[in-house]
Write a structure and sequence with these properties.
Elements: E1 3-6, E2 9-12, E3 25-28, E4 33-38, E5 41-46, H1 57-60, H2 62-65
Antiparallel strand pairs: 1-2, 3-4, 4-5
């Protein structure tokens, strides 16, 4: 569960709700792609999307999240 309660404040386990961040990377793939993990599971995105200050469609758009990636 991503949310935690502490001193009557709700904390979120990830830097933002919609962007991808280097702290979320679990695996590096070829061609500048990475596998990141958030509260909904793993997804692939470009390394250049990490910490760029924008929302990452690979994270928040379900049609992108359903793209298969190679697990090794």
């Amino acid at each position: 569960m991503a949310k935690q309660k502490e001193n009557n404040k709700t904390l979120y386990s990830y830097p933002t709700r919609f962007g991808s961040h280097k702290s979320m990377i679990v695996k590096e793939l070829e061609n500048g792609k990475v596998v990141c993990k958030d509260e909904f599971g793993e997804y692939t995105t470009s390394f250049s999307r990490c910490d760029d200050g924008t929302a990452d469609p690979s994270r928040w758009d379900l049609k992108f999240r359903n793209v298969k990636f190679e697990k090794s």
